[in-house]
Write a structure and sequence with these properties.
Elements lengths: L2 H8 L3 H10 L6 H11 L4 E4 L6 H16 L7 E4 L7 H14 L3 E4 L5 H9 L4 E4 L1 H7 L3 H7 L4 E4 L2 H5 L2 H16 L4 E6 L5 H9 L5 E4 L6 E6 L5 H10 L3 H15 L4 E4 L3 H14 L3 E4 L5 H12 L5 E4 L14 E5 L5 H8 L10 E6 L3 H16 L12 H15 L2 E2 H10 L8 H13 L3 E4 L4 E4 L3 H7 L9 E6 L5 E6 H6 L6 E4 L2 E9 L4 E7 L18 H19 L4 H9 L6 H16 L9 E7 L2 E5 L3 H20 L4 E5 L2 E5 L6 H10 L5 H9 L3 H13 L14 H8 L3 H14 L2 H12 L4 E6 L3 H4 L16 H13 L1 E6 L6 E5 L17 E4 L4 H8 L5 H20 L1 H8 L5 H9 L5 H18 L5
Parallel strand pairs: 1-6, 1-7, 2-4, 2-5, 3-4, 5-6, 8-13, 9-11, 9-12, 10-11, 12-13, 17-21, 22-26
Antiparallel strand pairs: 14-16, 15-16, 17-18, 19-20, 20-21, 22-23, 23-25, 24-25, 27-28, 27-29
Helix pairs in contact: 1-3, 3-4, 4-5, 7-10, 10-18, 10-19, 12-13, 16-17, 17-23, 17-25, 18-20, 18-21, 23-25, 23-26, 24-25, 26-27, 26-28, 29-30, 29-31, 34-39, 35-36, 36-37, 36-38, 37-38, 38-39
Organism: Natrarchaeobius halalkaliphilus
GO biological process, one term: DNA repair
GO molecular function: ATP binding; ATP hydrolysis activity; catalytic activity, acting on DNA; DNA binding; helicase activity
Amino acid sequence: MTDGDVAAFTHLGPTVRDALSERGFSTPTAPQRLAIPPLSAGQHTLVIAPTGSGKTETAMLPVFDDLVSDGPPAGFGALYVTPLRALNRDMRERLEWWGDALDLDVAVRHGDTTQYQRGKQAEDPPEILITTPETLQAMLTGERLREGLTDVSHVVIDEVHELAASKRGAQLSVGLERLADLADGFQRIGLSATVGEPTSVGQFLTGGRPCEVRQIDVGSNVDVTVHEPEITAEDEKLAGTLLTEADTASHVRLIRELVDDHESTLIFVNTRQTAEALGSRFTELGAPIGVHHGSLSKEARIDVEDRFKAGELDGLLCTSSMELGIDVGRVDHVVQYKSPRQVTRLLQRIGRAGHRRDEVSSGTIVTTRPDDTFEAIAIARRACSGEVEPAAIHEGSLDVVANQIPGIVQSRGSTPVREAYDTVSRAYPFRDLPEATFREVLSELHRNRVVWFDEGDDRIETSGSTWQYVYANLSMIPDEETYEVHDIASGTQIGTLDERFVVNFARPGEVFIQRGEMWRIAEIDDDEAVVKVSPIEDPAGEVPSWIGQEIPVPYEIAREVGEIRTAAEPQFGIGADAASVGRELSGRYPADERTLANACEQLERHVDAEAAMPTADRIVCERHGRSVALNACFGHAANETLGRLLSSLLGQQAGSSVGLETDPYRIELEVPSSIGTSDVLAVLEDTDPGHVEAIIELGLKRSDALAFRLAQVSAKFGALKRWQGSGRMSNERLLAALEGTPMYEEAIREVFHEDLAVDRARTIIERIQSDDLEVVSQRGRTPIGTDGRSSGTELLAPENADASVIKTVRERIQNDRILLACTHCREWKAKTTVKRVQDQPECGNCGSTRIAALNPWADEVVQAVQAEEKDDEQERVTERAYRSASLVQGHGKRAVIAMAARGVGPHNAAQIINKLRESEDEFYRDILSKEREYARTQSFWD
């Protein structure tokens, strides 16, 4: 043991040092050596270190020492706040051991704590309380609990990097200031995974007060390799066994080999869909690999955690649920399936391996296509170099302000407005909140009768609804309906499904995957929100349409992919091939030569086609038919912003909507034939960069995305009181009713914060207009433009591997009922199944082919068509029917099939019909893609 090792523990008193010896802590870990000195000195401290490196003891040893030295307080001495809903069992057991050893009472308080235990904690507060951000909110309003909180001398915030970037964290930051009004001067300790710009996370933790940042250099202790599997004869054989394609089988085989080569492996995937899809493949193979994600039941999660920890499972397929501090024993390798999208994600995930003995964290990124490989090597290089994205502090959320004002007045009673404002604005995310905006929020709460605002006395009072609001809104996590999934044979719960999946997909007889197994739906109980299922062995199925957005790729990573292309392009120009370019890249990036050569084949094909190379400093615009693609290496948010700008202005110009899809490297537009490539380029060259934000906001005003956010935000303002019933209303009515309110402003702000990058888009346009960024027009599609998307879908690539899924979709649509109505004579209508519709439907009355294909229950549409005089709503409905009839007249039964799909109206049907394809299967795959898109985006308020 070195003098440096000894020095850390010498800051602790003899009682704690004796307990350390009993516990077997002879040598401090790296974070303990760095952080115990400032923590023991009482300084606010942010500790940044990998999961599993002893962060909990790092934070708590000085806290234990202080509580033992000063004697037990009358109230709570320390709060340990963790965002983990499951309240990590291992962490709790460790803290309880320390409590027993040091004669300190350690207790847990969360949503499942019994009323008896809560009462006991209020009467006789434990010295140390482990709790959640939401439960702390509830504690701040209890009279006896508030008395106990006045003695708090230490608050530890676990996983503070996760909280800083969320509304949960913004709410907690105000909660800490409310706590400071009771117990001023308590020490704040934050535990964080590796983040860029850690100073801002420290400021979030302390509310702008001085903060010591103690950080472990993770990048130098990471060994990561990027590898794309090579298809072998075994994969061809395995593909037949799994009813999948050979490339997918190669992914499964490689992951299985990596698991076999190590003792305990975590396999991270980016979505729950992929976890379930991969899990079903390993189940077919009988591999000892479990599935773990947030939509499985608590019992199912605990079961696989315990089995993995005990060595019964060699691998665990998991999502971001395993990035945080859940203890599953020692992990010696991490597999990341597909690009992790962000450096922070990679470091958090690979950081799970090897830290119990200060070992190097080893991991493998398994990639599936060129974009995926280039993105992964950029991320891996940046991880090893310590180039980490900053935590995006969630600043200025007005619905959080609305949420906190009732809590403040409920706990304090009659409160001066200025006093409440001072408390909120001390929190770091609200340091720039204008008092006038605070008062606007307060006035809205008064109008909604959540609180009483006496402008004459300038005070806030409780109303008859305040108490009810506070306890119905302890959490900032969106309140969405979930259905429990129960095995009908055993009665046990196996997981949950979100409401939108149940509404749009679930029917008795349908099949889906959960927990890596196939289930057939037997019954749906909407009143009890339960889906009853039975297990099956039939491999044909649908993966649940989980709530959640894909992880966005930052600008810096997409730009580095562009820089890789920049470096490769001239090498091909002087005769190099993909193998030699890949060999050169292998000297700078952590991947084998064959993987890099495979990825470079895409670039070689692009150069051979004499196409301009899209790079970090060049946009390549290419067109095929009505499809216009801009190859732009700017990342998800910037491309989405530019895409919305183009879609909005081109749509205005054409007088019709423009389809839009984006990924980190492409902006794809489906434009009317009247829009030329020059029109697209003119938007980039002529739009005033200063107008970008206003144009996009105008385009958002009637969007479902804004309506969905607005519904959630308005609930926090008490405008939509969920405890009084659903009170659902259409998106259009909701947007019209709330435009101009603080709720509308907050919903707009949230869309901009979470989905868009206006400043980046503005800069890109400025660069184009100053000739600093080249824009090249290309006729026809290019290899880079048409090759696989880096993140378009998160099912096993390719998404359409199971032919049986397409067969199921075809049979279901052919058997669906459809309403046919003539828009020429406006008198004839008929209901029938899709399979009975003629190739070219005709009116049974007048013989016209102008036949609208409608949902079988859409009689009100027929009535609107038949009406002599129409109001605005009827005009809108009639126009939709005429568009449908125009498609049927032009494309016959093919249009009827497309419009019979779920959530596919005339606009989407036209996109499906007009797409060139080689087979009927591709037609139905496109329909399924649109149905999935509808399932993901259908508003809560529809």
